[in-house]
Design goal:
Blueprint: E1 9-13, H1 18-29, E2 33-38, H2 41-53, E3 57-62, H3 68-82, E4 87-90, H4 105-133, E5 137-142, H5 155-174, E6 180-187, E7 190-191, H6 193-201, H7 203-211, E8 219-220, H8 221-232, E9 243-246
Parallel strand pairs: 1-2, 1-4, 2-3, 4-5, 5-6, 6-9, 7-8
Helix pairs in contact: 1-8, 3-4, 4-5, 6-7
Length: about 250
């Protein structure tokens, strides 16, 4: 297989469902060697096996992205198995709803750990490995529209995703002279298992979300994967430190 990501070694977190899964499949189809990190071992091995059966090159490493040692192991495994690291998609995230007044301290810390600290751990170990591999490379962090706009019902998630964009810019400046790039995705309403859960639980809530979506539809994980593939490929060599919207004009 060959394509835009031919021979690149890429790490993806949260790669067993939704946007992470779509990117893992797309990256492998584009010629990358993909190292998937996620908590669900059975599902992870299944996904990696499906990619290999389709002719791609994939490896699964059980990973809790909120644990620094496990993120370090994910990167170390990619390098030890494939000899280098060329890029990463720090995609894992999620968490409970709740306003500032409703959010308990445990949920606050859990949300920051999953959505922000995990990205810090990723960058901390990915960037040195990419630089050491030579030839430049790139990292994409999934920030979401919650990184650029407020939401009274998602206080902790909102704060964490704003932090991801700030962290992305800081990291991009830190490594700008090395040929390594760091960008963030401002993802809007995307049709993922999380969104399908909202639809099945409360169709009226789903309709309310769609009513403020200018395009009138949710985006797809494959559309996000296509943009991520571009940002991790060589064609986007002058794009770094950016927060790039893929949101159907939701933040326009």
């Amino acid at each position: 297989m060959s394509g835009r990501l031919d021979s690149k070694v890429l790490v993806v977190t949260g790669g067993t469902q939704g946007m992470g899964l779509a990117f893992a499949r797309r990256a492998a189809a584009e010629g990358a060697r993909v190292v998937i990190g996620a908590r669900d071992k059975d599902r992870g091995e299944q996904v990696a096996g499906e990619i290999r059966n389709a002719g791609g090159n994939a490896l699964f490493v059980p990973t809790d992205v909120t644990v620094e040692e496990e993120m370090a192991r994910l990167v170390d495994t990619a390098v030890s198995e494939f000899g280098r690291l060329d890029g990463a998609f720090n995609n894992a995230g999620g968490g409970p709803m709740g306003s500032v007044r409703e959010t308990g301290s445990d949920n606050w810390h859990q949300s920051l750990a999953l959505n922000l600290t995990s990205v810090f751990y990723g960058l901390k170990y990915e960037l040195p490995a990419i630089i050491a591999s030579g030839g430049g490379g790139a990292v994409v962090n999934n920030a979401s529209v919650s990184g650029v706009k407020g939401d009274a019902t998602q206080a902790a998630y909102n704060a964490a995703k704003h932090g991801v964009i700030g962290l992305t810019r800081s990291a991009a400046l830190d490594v700008a002279g090395s040929g390594v790039r760091v960008n963030a995705l401002v993802t809007g309403l995307i049709d993922t298992p999380l969104w399908q859960g909202v639809v099945s639980r409360d169709p009226s809530a789903a309709q309310r979300y769609l009513s403020v979506q200018p395009t009138g539809r949710a985006g797809t994980s494959d559309e996000v994967a296509a943009l991520t593939t571009f940002l991790l490929g060589d064609e986007s060599a002058f794009i770094t430190g950016a927060a790039i919207a893929i949101d159907g004009a939701l933040t326009a």
